[in-house]
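Database export, one record per block. Field names are fixed; values are copied verbatim from the stored entry.
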Amino acid sequence: MTDDSTRTDEHDPGPDRQSDASTEAARRASRERIMADARRMRDDAKRVGRETGRNLGQFDYRRPRGPVKADLEDTHGHYPHDTHPILVPGIAIDEQRRKYSLDTIIFAIAGGLTVAFVIWGISSPASVASVAQSAYDWATLNVGWLFNLVAIIILVSLLILAFSPYGKIPLGKDGETSEFSTFSWVAMLFAAGIGIGVLFFGPSEPLTYFISPPPLTNDPETTEALHGAMAQTYFHWGFHAWAMYALVGGAIAYAAYRRGRSLLLSSIFQTLFGKRQTEGFAGKLVDIFAIVATLFGTAAALGIAAMQIGTGVSIVSGAGPMTNNMLVVIILVLTLGFIISAVSGVSRGIRYLSSINIVLTVGIVALVLFLGPTLYLLNLLPSAFMEYLGSMFDMMGRSLSWGAETQEFQSLWTVYYWAWWISWSPFVGTFIARISRGRSIRQFILGTIFIPSTLLFVAYGIMGGTSIWMYRSGASGFTDSMEAPEVFFTLIDNLPYVEWLPFVVIIVLAIFFITSADSASVVMGMLTSRGDQEPKKWVVVFWGLVMSGIAVVMLLLGDASALEGLQQLVIVTAVPFALVMLFIIVAWFKELRTDPLALRRQYALNAVDNAVVAGADAYGDDFALQVVPTEPGDGANGGIDSEHGDYTDWYQRTDENGEPVGFDYETGEWADGWTPDDDSANTEDSAATEESTAAEADAGSTTDADSGTASASESDPDSATDSEADSGPDRREDHS
């Protein structure tokens, strides 16, 4: 009986066991419902995330209404165009309404000062030389530290910016794609670094450091001196130089393509100075500093080109040593070529010549690699790069505190280069800003700093390594007292099968001179025409003539083969703009804090943090997030006053006279019915404007940098179409 009853109990669940089974089934059903809800929420989140990413920039741009109380409407006030600042997609420069005209104050001050300098320099070069020497001695002794500090701060600041959350902000409107493909963009960045410097400093600078190493480093003409010479050259032409270009270019691109301002240096400072001062005294001062720095920096490059051409002509023609008179004649002839290019409409031909120029320059470097000591160079390139990385911090730390000899070396080389790159930053910055529209700040900074630098390391490693190898081998013509312009032609003379190459090099250098003058003059024309992307031809020609005049004066300060005159004036005139560069960092960082994307991120973090804390406090583990209205001050803004002018003033649209006009961000319609076609319809002398547009679009392509643009864009039909459709700001420059 006991066994039977026991078996009966085992098979009979009884009331308690039935209750446990029901509870367990209910729990399983609850878990399944929760898991199903979680899967549904996860799928919904993924779908919403995909749609948000796909439709970013297509929000309902009206101010968020929702089921809010009527009294909350009055609390929030009104946003410009009923658009909350975190929902603004950005404003492009070509969507704004503005009138362009010559800024007579900037033109009169900058033009008057520089013309007076040219007249003074030509009429009394001795007195200019005396003043320039005194100013140079004072600047290198007292503010050499400033140039070193600026170079370090810019590189570090941009790397921090690139890897910060601000790095995701686009240089354009939300959802805007890059104007150029990655390949085209890289090609244009590379083209921006190919120029006179590769043929002039590429062979001569490393050889100089090999024969006379920087103080307190290596013994002359040793293996250590070889690698140290390459590292020192890379230091001057590498990451620090391109960081300066990236700073100015990125800030200009952000102001123009995300905030809708003019392509002016002063536009960067609107958040820092205020709109009134930016359009007034402070902004004009910044643009004047930019013009003066660009004039002298570009004139130095033109002077170097003339020196190199003069040396080539002397060698090819057998005319004897180069003289200052020969250089002046060369500059006058090339300046005439620039004027013809600027006013006669032959810029399209110059554009294609410039494309060929880049190919020829790369071809010259390749010839040196394959006809020179190929195996030696292939071994040297990675070794030199690693030496550069290993000794970078040591080179960054050199200053007057290392002694008088180090200070003298820094003045002749490092400080001069930092000043030169600072002088060129408005010029090259405008170019790289124009080609980088639509890219994120992170892509822009990292690409601009590292891609051209790496490609230049290869070019300079080949040219410099070959000249050092030939010197050590006792090649014909190489001595320890060679002038810089002679090194390249002596190198060519020791290569087989290239007796014709000096003639090609002279042509390449001549085209570089003309296109650089053309492009730099257009940029300075923009700076004196309130950002007009198609400045008047006479303004462009005026700045080209002034630039050539400054180049003549620079060369007259030294002998025909010396760089002292060029170096002195570049350093002296770059001092004010070095301070401007520091202000650019502050202004750009300050403005990024109020960017719509940065605000969205801040709102998201605040909303999620608040929701997680409240949910865990009320429901433990079992809660989900939902968007609901809150009382004022308890929401996602986390204390941000979204109606403050720092967040809202910039996207208030105005007409050509600066008066506020209604605008619908959802449809892109202006309240007064204005359309972009109205500008073209009201433009005076439309035929002349059309001709100017075509000519200057090509002129924008005629710079050394834009040579790469032409060839790259032609291989990418979409990019080429975009480029020609928006040719106004498409100004291409070569920085060396």
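Remark 1: DSSP finds 29 helices and two strands in the chain.
Remark 2: The first strand starts at residue 663 and ends at 664.
End of record.
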